[in-house]
């Protein structure tokens, strides 16, 4: 039966009641074909949809950066996919400082507290929805399984709503304040602005062709450290050619492999979002947590003075901060003094041995210490309680510690 | 030959008649009624449990987010019981009921010795198979609606109704909420098509109704277990159950369509593959009973 299994004639008429085994087998061509067509469609459609890079007029890197700076997009809504792969499951404080250094406030207890929730963004893949209407109304929603966490800023109200537990967080901000900064980085624009702050003579910035992101034509801006020793390989930013809005941000490590941070719109619209998007009244029976301290929290999350490098975000919110080195190889150093700025720092005694086993022991002029590595950030914790953190390789970190001694 | 020719000559009305008699046979069975009864009882259980738990007064959020989707909102709006009940029954109760009915569809007839009498009627095997498939899908819809209607009734009895908050935090009117509940019920029913097609295919493989039902339900459990294993991540998108809970995306504002369309596409694919496999097997099979 098998040799003729693919004979098309056999499948021709359903009325053909021939009982021959050959024909019987031939019928299975139909389900197999359906499966084959489906597999081919799934495999081919993305390839066809990827219609190549769009043709756009030439532009220099400087012009493109200016375009981003000039971008005056006030209304925007879309879906953002954010993937982070720092390469280490939990380094507690280090990762959560991505959520605006809000570690200390995360102990509030309400699951609707923005800082507690957005820490989740620091690992894995998440889908966000963003809507912006001017400086006074923004909304970011984190899509979860059958639930959603929304952070809504409408005028002077800031609402956090966790639909899974039906809990509401409420805070207020000055209407004239820098509201935008109080939002954790969620859109490619936020990330791009951070990256472009670090553009100086230690950085090479080039325009590397064009790309299509969320159905829009975009330029690709590539930012690379000129020095060696940084764990940052390259940062690629796709910039919408019409509006100058960054649509996609990708940070690849110098060690190669998958991107450490990849944030991009999968869907974007520059129309004004519906007004109802920003209206929020706590649902009946929801537990509302008031937080009058959001103003403080906002200042808290602003960039420290004299810290122009994006990587130094990671050290944000820690006291006694000292910067060593320059450009991309800047290392943040601080003394935990046993207070425990980092969980590992305060753990000293009992946990020390366990934590030590997670990192690599190193020796140098600074004494001995342990290096904890992620794909982007390396941290050196010395035995006398000093912590050095930077987006530099292990060797560069030890060198900085030696020099900083 | 003559059978199929006869089938071609029969009017569409005749097919409709066959479908009607199949529906009647299926829904008159005690087994079917018992399955629907169990399904109707689930929302009652959930509703009463939530009511007892929070009987001392209106619940204040609480729950910490544990339990099936939407459960924390039930006390504030009974309509949420519909979503919770569907979320609670979709992983197991609903597909199990569908698996039982689909597995029994042809194997049960063969087992009881009635299949050949069905084929004596001038309908043709393809037509009979399509009718059986339509009946199983009708059962999917009926089962889902039983859960939804029972949940709505219990929700209205035990809890207040009114405007509701979508999971995105925006408010919609009760009428729109009802419309979305109906849409969700339809999507849930459509989510079961994959299991229905799989069950029908298994049903053509054996002459024992029990074996077909057990195999279908066994496959369902296997897929659900495999779906929990993170190491099999790459395979998960091909499991018929992978996008089941995407129905909750209809409660977002605006609706998030990506997973919903993937779910419907996947169910259609299962229907096409296993439906045609069932056709290949059934039309070429020796009917001995």
UniProtKB/TrEMBL annotation, chain A:
Transmembrane helix among keywords: yes
Q: Where is the composition biased (Basic and acidic residues)?
A: 1-20, 297-311
Segments crossing the lipid bilayer: 28-49
Q: Which organism is it from?
A: Streptomyces griseomycini
Asked if the keyword Iron belongs to this entry, the reply reads no
Q: Residues annotated as region Disordered?
A: 1-24, 276-311
InterPro entries assigned: LolA/LolB/LppX, Sporulation_related
Q: Which UniProt keywords apply?
A: Lipoprotein, Membrane, Transmembrane, Transmembrane helix
Q: What protein name does the entry list?
A: Outer membrane lipoprotein-sorting protein
From TrEMBL, chain B:
Q: Which residues form a coiled coil?
A: none
Residues passing through the membrane, by range: 30-50, 79-107, 128-161, 181-202, 209-229, 264-282
Q: Keyword Coiled coil, does the record have it? A: no
One MF term from GO for this chain?
ABC-type transporter activity
Pfam families found in the cross-reference section = ABC2_membrane_4 (PF12730)
Q: Name one GO cellular component term.
A: plasma membrane
Protein keywords: Membrane, Transmembrane, Transmembrane helix
Q: What is this protein called?
A: ABC-2 type transport system permease protein
| Organism the protein comes from | Streptomyces griseomycini
